[in-house]
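Input sequence (159 aa), recorded before submission:
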Amino acid sequence: MASFFRANEIATIAVEIEKKGREFYLSLEKSATNPKTRELFHYLANEEAKHQGIFQSLAKRLGEIELPAWATSEEYGAYIQGLIESHALFTDQDSDLKAAVVDNEKAAVRMAMSFEKDTLLFFMEMETFVPDTEKDAVRECIQEERVHLSKLQAIYSQL
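Predicted structure, token format:
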């Protein structure tokens, strides 16, 4: 089964990732007991909202631009679909993970690290699909995801 995406669909998926990420971080912020962790989750929720706006804007600008011809192969389409379906916030384990996160702040940070890593990988692939004029916006988000992962790692090592 061949999968085919348009560039604006990839940006729309990025919007959904950021939206779910924001919701995730807001729920973690409420349950966090460590003030530094709570502050970090608040910061990350705001960052997700910022990225959501960037990708909403990007999706509108991209319109119906098709992906490069090399990206329409069945194998690559399956790869992108796999990135989406295996993303930490899109798995069927969602309710189990949230329950674990509420009970254990270290598990919450670890889950957040997984979310940031999955998002980073998705955005790195997304960069190849957007026109050169739009790459800087995606690169900026990639760099910010790296910073988020580093901040989470620092908190994780302190818990």
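Checked by second reader. The helical segments are 7-31, 35-62, 74-85, 94-103, 105-127, 135-158.
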